[in-house]
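Why should sequence recovery work at all? Because a backbone constrains its sequence more than one might expect. Tight turns favour small or flexible residues, buried strands favour hydrophobic ones, and helices have their own preferences. The token representation captures these environments compactly. In the example below, the structure is given first.
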């Protein structure tokens, strides 16, 4: 059995030796799958939002909508993605879609403005 030593910082300057423990006892608890999936989805949703913003600024409105849709698929309550998609839909002349997205931007958990 392999032993490792666990240390505790003392006022950030030195460390003292505590009782040796097995490496297995020091291992951290694994992250559950749901937490990991949510973390990855949130990070990825932000990436898609940023891509959509870049495409909107370059004039690729269809590509921007695609990226905002992907961000919303990954996080259904991502109000920024709804807001940006609503702006692009308005630029495309889709008034009903813009109003729908504006409602979801203002009320991400439900509700209606118009």
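From this structural description, the recovered sequence reads:
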């Amino acid at each position: 059995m392999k032993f490792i030593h666990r240390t505790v910082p003392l006022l950030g300057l030195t460390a003292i030796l505590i009782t040796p423990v097995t490496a297995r006892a020091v291992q951290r608890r694994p992250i559950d799958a749901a937490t990991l999936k949510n973390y990855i989805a949130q990070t990825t949703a932000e990436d898609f939002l940023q891509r959509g913003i870049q495409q909107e600024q370059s004039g690729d409105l269809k590509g921007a909508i695609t990226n905002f849709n992907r961000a919303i698929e990954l996080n259904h309550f991502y109000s920024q993605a709804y807001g940006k998609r609503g702006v692009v839909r308005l630029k495309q002349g889709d008034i009903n879609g813009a109003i729908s997205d504006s409602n979801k931007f203002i009320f991400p958990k439900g509700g209606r403005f118009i």
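A few observations help interpret the result. The chain is about 60% helix and 10% strand.
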